[in-house]
Specification:
Blueprint lengths: L1 E4 L5 H13 L3 E6 L4 E6 L2 H5 L9 E5 L20 E3 L2 E3 L3 E7 L6 H13 L4 E3 L17 H14 L3 E4 L6 H7 L2 E4 L7 H10 L3 E4 L6 H12 L6 E5 L17 H8 L4 E3 L1 H5 L2 H13 L4 E7 L13 E2 L3 H14 L3 E3 L3
Parallel strand pairs: 7-8, 7-14, 7-16, 8-9, 9-10, 10-11, 11-12, 12-13, 13-14, 14-15
Antiparallel strand pairs: 1-3, 1-4, 2-3, 5-6
The structure holds phosphoenolpyruvate and manganese (II) ion.
The site of manganese (II) ion (MN) has 5 residues, from loops.
């Protein structure tokens, strides 16, 4: 349920509502808009139903939220968009942000060279996995803590904020030291223990859609993070499994406008993992930007033929500044401004 306060409501009125909500065993999530304050009341139906707020001082109206997710719903923010800010880079609202880097952190040379390419082309954030979810248990699983140290070195040199994946809660402290955005991979989208832990950190989270998850399921997973008090969640469409075998996954670009209709959270698209092939990455990035995505996350590598993983889908480092120029045009089509402006 949403409690919409009157414009004239005082701080004490808002506090009183929060107290009533909490004493009934539900939780209150306050969202202060320009004119009015809205309080999201979250809890089981019984608790929420027992709170009598009709006519309470400062309360304008009580609006039920019918979706199974509440804090992630667009309704809660009454049309306002969440903008996640990472070290001066804004993701969401009128901004378009590019996250780029290798699939995995492989060596000092590759990581630093890629980081310079990403910075010089004007992309906003640097990606790279130190812990990798691999289909085969015998494939390279990432450099782990040594990889995190290389990401830190790349950040120190270029100033780029780091996006890196967390797979195991035992690595949380180490990842928190380096990451500016923690990625939760497609295969962990419904790992509720991890989602809850990430909700408690307060760090921005890039939440990838599961390979066969619906948009409602993605939003329910986002809700797990939000309900712990972390509002900085980026939803990521990265391709879903369909009957088509001509490419790795099917990039569901319809998810972009639909997620933006359902939720106030920013939507980022990963064309690399959907495509599995380099040549598809530019056209699908342009399509994502034109569809209104708030950003893309792409894999690049200075020598993709030598990459340890996902080389065939990595953009060549030497092509990256052209890629960024084209992307800027497509983002502009959707009324977005590329971030950061150098
Ligand atoms: C990745 O971004 O490197 C990755 C493994 O992505 P996903 O979880 O979407 O497969
Ligand atoms: Mn990859």
């Amino acid at each position: 349920m949403m409690v919409v306060m009157k414009e004239s409501a005082t701080l004490a009125d808002v506090e009183a509502v929060i107290e009533r909500v909490e004493s009934a065993g539900a939780s209150a999530h306050v969202s202060r808009g320009e004119l009015v304050t809205v309080i999201g009341v979250i809890g089981d139906r019984e608790h929420v139903g027992s709170i009598e707020l009709e006519g309470a001082p400062g309360v304008d109206q009580l609006v039920p939220i019918l979706k199974p997710y509440k804090l992630a719903s667009a309704q809660l923010k009454e049309g306002a968009r969440t903008v996640v800010e990472v070290d001066g880079r804004r993701i969401g609202g009128p901004h378009f942000t590019t996250i780029a880097g290798p699939c995995t952190v492989e060596s000092r040379e590759v990581m630093l060279e890629t980081a310079r390419t990403v910075r010089d082309a004007g992309a906003g954030l640097l990606r790279g996995g130190a812990y990798k979810p691999r289909t085969s248990p015998y494939s390279f699983q990432g450099l782990g803590e040594a990889g995190l140290r290389l990401l830190q070195e790349a950040k120190d040199e270029t100033g780029l904020p780091i996006v890196t994946e967390l797979m195991d809660v035992r690595d949380l402290d180490a990842v928190l030291e380096v990451a500016d955005v923690i990625q939760l991979g497609a295969r962990n989208m419904q790992n509720y223990t991890l989602l809850t832990e990430l909700g408690r950190t307060g760090k921005p989270v890039l939440l990838k859609r599961g390979l066969s998850s619906t948009l409602d399921e993605l939003l329910m997973s986002a809700e797990y993070i939000l309900k712990e008090g972390n509002e900085q969640v980026l939803l990521c469409e990265r391709g879903i499994r369909t009957f088509e075998t001509g490419y790795r996954f099917t990039l569901d670009l319809m998810a972009v406008p639909v997620l933006k209709e359902l939720s106030h959270l920013p939507v980022v698209v990963d064309p690399s993992h959907a495509a599995g092939k380099r040549d598809l990455v530019l056209p699908m990035s342009l399509a994502a930007a034109a569809a209104g995505a708030d950003g893309v996350i792409v894999e690049i590598h200075p020598a993709p033929e030598e990459a340890i993983c996902d080389g065939p889908q990595a953009l060549r480092g030497e092509d990256f500044s052209d890629y960024m120029r084209r992307l800027e045009q497509a983002a502009a089509l959707a009324g977005k401004e590329l971030q950061p402006v150098a």
